[in-house]
Amino acid sequence: MMPELPEVETVRRQLHAALAGQTILKVALYLTGREVPAGPLFVAGVVGKTVESIDRRAKLLIWRFTDGSGFVGHLKMTGKFLLVPLDYTPAKHDRLKFITKSSAVIWNDVRKFGYVKAFANAAELESLLTSYGPEPLISTAADLASRLLTPKTRVLKAALLDQTVIAGIGNIYADEACHRSGLRPTRRLSTLSAAQRLTLSTEIKNVLSASLALNGTTSNNYLDVNGERGGFVDFLQVYGRAGQPCRTCASPIKKLTLAGRGTHYCPQCQK
Ligand SMILES: [Zn+2]
Questions:
Q1: Where are the chain's structural domains?
Q2: CB under 8 Å to 126, separation ≥6 — which residues?
Q3: Distance from the alpha carbon of residue 260 to the mean position of ligand 1, in angstroms
Q4: DSSP 218
Q5: Interface confidence (ipTM) of the complex
Q6: CA distance to 10, 41, 118, 194, 199, per residue, from 168 (Å)
Q7: Domain 5-129 is of which CATH architecture?
Q8: Cα(129) to centroid of ligand 1, in Å?
């Protein structure tokens, strides 16, 4: 399970609150191999820079510095940015430590799929972001619905997971949005009516907002910058609930593999 929009946005807000206006005085590199450029070059591009903002696009965190440079960070499966005190002792799987006057941020990644990648200016950043579809929380439901028209034979679940279609949705919220909409994730796009696409798009926005309000979902790995779990896990209707009764109709939730991912739905509520 990978952090999705609500989890990454939670981390963004917390990092922004801690780091905006702070200068990175020192960077400790504990484990190399997942930063671009590698090793001392990455460190040299960050030390002495002042954080203007921490932003987000899709599931990418964007550390913007006041000189226009910065880096993007992708948490992938197990990457974490953790706020720690200045006297923190490095732990296993810590890769980088960013030190400011008042605190430090650890980049830790157990499974090493995550990465940080520097950019020199706005044009370089733009080139890292070109492939993403619209941001669901700031797009209208009608705009999102228009993304779910083609290719007609595409399976709904696959379309929802595709970051070029709509940005930020992953396995959890794809399944939850389908359940809220009464649509099976196995549906082909061509079988969806205009009303169904609009309902689904509205529910995508609703479920992402509801989860964000509870700092996201922790089903196994995700932790926010304070090491806290996301509270939305208690409100999941289908994800991770295979065999358990649907909270709406009590039918057992089914699980199948779709688009290469474990997919959960209620055979009674979803058509
Ligand atoms: Zn049901």
A1: 5-129, 141-265
A2: none
A3: 24
A4: -
A5: 1.00
A6: 13, 30, 21, 23, 18
A7: Alpha-Beta Barrel (3.20)
A8: 38
Token couple for 52: 């203007």
**Coil, helix or strand for 194?**
helix
Contact criterion met (CB below 8 Å) for 18 and 104: no
Q: Report the interhelical angle of 194-213 vs 5-19 (nearest 10°).
A: 40
Q: Which helix (H) or strand (E) holds 132?
A: none
How many residues appear in the chain? 271
135 as an active site residue: the answer is no
Residue 185: both structure tokens together: 């994730």
Cis peptide before 151 (omega within 30 of 0): yes
The answer to whether residue 59 is catalytic is yes
Strand-by-strand arrangement of the 79-84 sheet: 26-29, 94-99, 104-109, 79-84
- What distance, in Å, lies between the first and last C-alpha atoms of the chain? 26
User: Which of the 8 DSSP states describes residue 191?
Assistant: G
pLDDT at 220: 77
Task: Report how far ligand 1's centroid is from the alpha carbon of 81 (Å).
Answer: 37
CATH class in words for 141-265: mainly alpha
**pLDDT tens, residue order, the chain (271 aa):** 789 999 999 999 999 999 999 999 999 999 999 999 999 999 999 999 999 999 999 999 999 999 999 999 999 999 999 999 999 999 999 999 999 999 999 999 999 999 999 999 999 999 999 999 999 999 999 999 999 999 999 999 999 999 999 999 999 999 999 999 999 999 999 999 999 999 999 999 999 999 999 999 997 788 999 999 999 999 999 999 999 999 999 999 999 999 899 999 999 999 9
Q: How far apart are CA 47 and CA 186, in angstroms?
A: 49
* Alpha-helical runs (H) found in the chain: 5-19, 40-46, 122-129, 141-146, 156-161, 171-181, 194-213
- Is residue 3 part of the annotated active site? The answer reads yes
